[in-house]
Design a protein that fits this description.
The chain has about 375 residues and is an alpha/beta fold. It has two domains: about 5-175 and about 350-365, Glycogen Phosphorylase B (Rossmann fold); about 190-345, Rossmann fold, CATH 3.40.50.2000. Helix content is about 40%, strand content about 20%. The protein has 13 helices and 14 strands. The strands form two sheets. Strands 3-4-2-1-5-6-7-8 form an eight-stranded mixed beta sheet, with helices on both faces. The protein has a six-stranded parallel beta sheet with strand order 11-10-9-12-13-14, sandwiched between helices. Helix 1 crosses helix 13 and helix 9 packs across helix 12 (about 330-345). About 45% of the residues are buried. The mean pLDDT is about 95.
């Protein structure tokens, strides 16, 4: 196989304190492509304490700037270290693309997990929120003729509406080995939320729905796994409603603890406004835990309604609560969902993801 030299642009690396699903995708695929003998260099931001240059699992990481200024600094890093020394560029969009199509000569592959859309109004303030919402379709259209990789049919449909013509869906993988059989769960009915405690993830909807759950199931528990700006507000809501003995804030945990909690919980709940795919959903499936989520882009791809979980109309907290209660009380349904979820999780493999991405790259260089 001919060796390729790949420059990969992403705003965060796997060691960034706020790394999420997109960074897991980048890391797992980059290290596998590097393991096949290709040269991979990731250009990314530089959080405090991380070096300018580092080797991570076989690929090179070049860092400069924060998660906002990285877009300007990336061009400087490229010109200093990589210009005329690579064969292809992967321009990964997380809210903003790197606009590499303006200044690189090499072929560009766009990687777009999801559109920001709702992010602008939930996570930014006017006038930036209005400007971002109106401008996103315009700057993304600059890439409409660029070969584009995405991770779900939901995002593919969004991109098609913007006029994108060369879209390839590359399924995500799974870093956790699926169990051979359904595990034992907590004695008390237990719900888990796993993700950043930010508005776009809507952990507040989980807490509000859980208030109704406790009225029906007083022994039920809610595990909130993750950290973020909403944590203190959520803690106050829990205290105000007398749920301190029912709700546990685990904060950010390591991989081993994350897997343990997913395995012991009865159901995962994700009421976010949008996902690229919902990697944590498949991680939960691998541990025999079905999911309840809002019927939104990404989550409607990873949650198969009444097969591996339940989809709820977006923003309907009352129905979210009813679905949680229904799954917790209906052992037969919960086991059916858990079995199908566990079986489906076995088809996801980062090796396949890496091979599929390589196929796309080779098509255009």
């Amino acid at each position: 196989m001919e060796t390729m030299r790949i420059a990969w642009f992403n705003w965060k690396c796997i060691k960034h304190p706020e790394a999420g699903g997109a960074e897991v995708f980048t890391h797992e695929v980059a290290r596998r492509i590097a393991g096949m003998g290709h040269e991979v260099t990731l250009i990314t931001s530089r959080p405090k304490g991380l070096p300018l240059r580092e080797e991570v699992d076989g690929y090179t990481v070049l860092r400069s700037g924060n998660k906002f200024t990285v877009y300007l600094n990336a061009k400087k890093l490229y010109e200093k270290y990589l210009e005329n020394r690579v064969d292809v560029i992967i321009d990964e969009t997380n809210t903003l693309p790197f606009f590499t199509i303006i200044y690189v000569r090499e072929p560009v592959i766009a990687l777009i997990h999801q559109l920001a859309r709702e992010y602008w109004f939930l996570e930014t303030k006017p006038p930036l929120s209005i400007i971002g919402y109106l401008m996103e379709p315009q700057y993304l259209k600059l890439y409409k003729n660029v070969p584009t990789v995405t991770v779900s049919n939901s995002t593919k449909e969004d991109l098609e509406r913007l006029g994108f013509k060369k879209i390839h869906v590359v399924p995500e993988g799974l870093s956790i080995k699926p169990l051979n059989e359904l595990p034992d769960k907590e004695e008390d009915p237990t719900i888990i939320f796993l993700g950043r405690l930010r508005k776009i993830k809507r952990p507040d909807h989980v807490v509000k729905a859980f208030i109704e759950v406790v009225r029906e199931e007083p022994q039920s528990k809610l595990w909130i796994v993750g950290d973020g700006p909403l944590r203190r507000r959520l803690e106050k809501t829990v205290e105000k409603n007398g749920l301190s003995s029912n709700v546990v804030f685990h904060g950010r945990v390591g991989d081993e603890e994350k897997v343990r909690l997913l395995r012991k919980a009865h159901v995962l709940v994700l009421p976010g406004v949008r996902e690229g795919w919902g990697l944590v959903v498949i991680e939960a499936y691998s541990q025999g835990t079905p999911a309840i989520a809002y019927d939104v882009p990404g989550l409607r791809d990873s949650v198969r309604h009444l097969k591996t979980g339940i989809l709820v109309p977006q923003g309907n907290i009352r129905l979210l609560a009813k679905s949680m209660i229904y799954v917790l009380q209906n052992n037969k349904l919960r086991e059916k969902l858990a079995r199908e979820a566990l079986e489906w999780s076995k088809q996801f493999d980062w090796n396949n993801t890496a091979m599929e991405l390589l196929k796309v790259i080779k098509t255009y260089i």
